[in-house]
Specification:
Elements lengths: L2 H38 L12 H20 L9 H11 L21 H5 L6 H14 L1
Helix pairs in contact: 1-2
Protein name: Transmembrane protein 32 protein
Membrane topology: Multi-pass membrane protein
Keywords: Membrane, Signal, Transmembrane, Transmembrane helix
C-alpha cells in the first residue's frame, strides 16, 4: 500500500470510530433521559428516538473513505487467461509484477509455459533429419 492509501484508510477509520462513539453517546444519553423522565412521569415509559442524521451521514462518508483507501492500495489486476499472462511475462519480465514498494509480487512464478518450452525429453526430429542430410552430403 502506498502512503496515500494508508493515510486515506486511516482517516476513514478515525471518522468511523468517531461516528461509532457519537452513536454510543447518543444512545447512552437517550437511555439516561428516558430513565429520568420515567421516574418523573409513569406515562412516558418507553421513549425511543432515532439516530441523528449527522451521525448517519458521518458513518456513510467514513465507510466510503475506508473503501476508497483500500481500493487505492490494491495491486494491479492480473490477466485472467494464461496465454495473456505468459505474453506479459515474456514482454515485460519481472518489472510488470512489482508493487508500489518496488518488490516483486509473491505470486510471480515466471513463465507458466517454461516447462513446455524447454521439453527436456523432447527429440527434435527436424534437427536430426537436417544433421543426417548434412552427414549424407559430406560422405
Amino acid at each position: 500500500m502506498t502512503w496515500i492509501s494508508k493515510a486515506t484508510t486511516t482517516f476513514g477509520l478515525l471518522l468511523l470510530a468517531h461516528a461509532c462513539y457519537s452513536a454510543h453517546e447518543h444512545s447512552a444519553l437517550q437511555a439516561h433521559r428516558a430513565a429520568s423522565l420515567a421516574s418523573l412521569t409513569a406515562s412516558q415509559a418507553g421513549v425511543a428516538t432515532s439516530l441523528p442524521i449527522d451521525i448517519a451521514i458521518e458513518t456513510v462518508v467514513a465507510t466510503f473513505i475506508v473503501v476508497l483507501g483500500l481500493v487505492l492500495g490494491t495491486a494491479q489486476l492480473r490477466p485472467i487467461r494464461w496465454r495473456v499472462w505468459a505474453g506479459q511475462i515474456e514482454r515485460e519480465g519481472e518489472e510488470a509484477f512489482k508493487d508500489a514498494d518496488g518488490e516483486i509480487a509473491r505470486d510471480y512464478i515466471g513463465n507458466p509455459f517454461k516447462l513446455l518450452e524447454s521439453r527436456p525429453g523432447f527429440v527434435d526430429i527436424r534437427k536430426q533429419r537436417q544433421e543426417f542430410a548434412d552427414w549424407v552430403k559430406s560422405q
